[in-house]
Amino acid sequence: MSVMPLRPSRSGTPHNGTVGPTLPEDKVYELIGDDGFRRLTGAFYRQIPADDILGPMYPASDFAGAEQRLRDFLIFRFGGPPVYIEKRGHPRLRMRHNPFPVDQAARDRWVHLMNNALTEAALPAEAEAVLRPFFEHVATFLINRNQEQPA
Ligand code: HEM
User: Atom of ligand 1 at shortest distance to CA of 138?
Assistant: First the structure.
């Protein structure tokens, strides 16, 4: 049974303390398949409607569509079929997140819910070691608002 990481990895080095070869990003899909990404995005989106920060940002009438967009993106990004690109074009993630107020608190909550989802999905450790730091880095890159200043 592995122990949950206390701190985010900044290097992509596995969290289990070993220094070993890291799974190449484009091999993650081969390892976990559609099923792995489906379990992950399912576990992530199940938490969204009830979340006080993120819930209101997502389209209440189209959670299934939002889940599919994230899943298609991740499958493409990690070596699977490029269905996302065919449907949506270039990801342009910063631009597409502009309408949503992503401040530090929203970023931290997103990462927290995704870390819960990673734990629930129980993917192979090599895949998890690639995905956890990836989500942390991209989420930081997507911050597009300053924290509200106290009055
Ligand atoms: C940092 C906190 C984040 C917030 C608050 C956030 C919020 C949102 C919202 C509200 C949407 C619209 C849902 C929809 O598709 O209808 C969205 C879309 C999306 N997000 Fe995020 N997101 C965050 C981080 C991330 C990260 C880290 C990734 C990738 C690793 C990501 C990937 C995507 C993708 C691929 C879409 C669909 C884009 C499209 O094709 O329209 N997001 N996000």
Answer: 27
pTM of the model: 0.88
3-state DSSP helix/strand/coil percent for the chain, to nearest 5? 60, 0, 40
Provide the CA 64 distance to its chain's centre, in angstroms. 16
Q: In which domain, by residue range, is 113 found?
A: 25-141
In this structure, is residue 70 part of a structural domain?
yes
43: in domain? yes
Distance between alpha carbon 146 and the CA centroid of its chain, in Å? 21
Residues 100-136 pLDDT 10s: 999 999 999 999 999 999 999 999 999 999 999 999 9
- What CATH code is carried by the domain that includes residue 52? 1.10.490.10
Give 19 Cα–ligand 1 centroid separation in angstroms.
Answer: 32
Report the domain count for the chain: 1
- Which ligand 1 atom is the nearest neighbour of the CA of 69? 37
For a pocket test of ligand 1, which of 45, 52, 71, 93 has the largest count of ligand atoms closer than 8 A to its C-beta?
Answer: 93
Has residue 19 been placed in a domain? no
Does residue 18 sit within a domain? no
d(CA 75, CA 83): 8
